[in-house]
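Here is my example:
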Amino acid sequence: MSGEIDLEAVLELHRRELTGYCYRMLGSGSEAEDAVQQLPPRQRSTLILCEVLKWSAAEVAELLETTIASVNSALQRARATLSSAQGAPLDSRVDPAQEALLAKYVDAFERYDISSLVTLLRDDVILSMPPWETWMVGPDELAAWFLGQGIVCEHGRLIPVDVNGTAGFGNYHFVRPGLWEPWAIQVIEEADHKIVGQHNFLYPSLFEEFGLPPRIEEAV
């Protein structure tokens, strides 16, 4: 079996894990998918084997029929490519159109109207849930997740919060009538008047740092 066939198989089987790795490196969902596309095949495969699957340089060298020095060089070039990756600029929060988009998002999310929510998403939208490895691309995948495993978000509440200049929300899960508890810090990325990233940081302990209430309570 040739090395090229092995590279293509590895890339296809672990593409999402590589995209998640790129997201953690770049800190932006909109840039991660572009970065995967920009990486040459050998660099992508080396990243998957070394960083995602945690193979040693010697193991990778044997698979690719090359030297350890060549593997390390490819890995260094891949990291350099990622560090210089530049994605499309996100929309400014001061744009009234973007504020209107966020208002529509909050309305659709809190009503859990997934049909309306997906109309706000760009075709290449990404959903992630650090520290979980959940990674989805495209409105159809997001809709299926929201109506499947993500149904736990139904009846949730959102409180706006600024996350390093990017639109964000404290996402509170419904516990019982009149009570919602912290679940995740949502970061919403926007471009071309559409949502291109919906990233959920599952760290309820961060709510206090963002000045968010420890819970939402309402009389019933």
